[in-house]
Design a protein that fits this description.
It contains 6 helices and 14 strands. It has a 7-stranded mixed barrel. Strand 7 and strand 8 (about 155-160) form a beta hairpin. With about 250 residues, it is an alpha+beta fold. Helices cover about 30% and strands about 30% of the residues. The protein starts with a strand and ends with a helix.
Amino acid sequence: MYVEINGVTIRSLGDSAIILQIGNEVNLENHQKVVNIADLMEAEPFKGFIEAVPGYNNLTVYYDPVTVINRYKEQNDKTSFEIVSELMIDYVNKTQNSSTTKNRLIEIPVVYGEEFGPDLEFVAKYNDITPEEVIQFHTEKDYLVYMIGFAPGFPYLASVNKRIATPRKKTPRPKIPAGAVGIAGEQTGMYPLESPGGWQIIGQTPIDLFTPESSPPTLLQTGDKVRFIPISKEEYLLYKEQKNEHKNT
């Protein structure tokens, strides 16, 4: 089932979720519309609303169909999908002229290459540039956090300079350490937890991206901006040492 109105497509995802898509292009304008809708839903949730998860140009909305049907009894000839679709169009209309939200800028220190970035040389050779140029291109701009996914706190950041865009590995690694910084196509991102993964790993950050005891538990949120700051191996080790000392006090 799906509904399409004025460039907005809404389709069902099972019986308790829908996906709202804004346009067909992944760009900052469409993503900002998604974020504005998600923010309004969190501030003014409909009865039965559970969660809204932003993507690049789409929003996945989870809801309780029983609560939706019971709450909107005057529309009892409609399915929960139809009811929620109409509610979503209202949210879209309310945010039509919303202004762009102010982004937080988070600086992330990264040590590049060697044992911390085993794929730095490959990324350089693939793009016919030097490892130093890969680092330069990777750190020369601020990246928007389009969405959080794959693992708790894993940020999808875009877009890297096309000079360093590199495909994922054909065979994923069985284990990538927490804090690994990678490239996949024109995306860059960081692994918050040790996990398997197929991104090209070019560096490592000593920053904790996911701390379950914190509120919120993830360092980055959708809509934030990230700036990578190159650091030396010595600075990386010193940061880790100081962090461990802080935990033990």
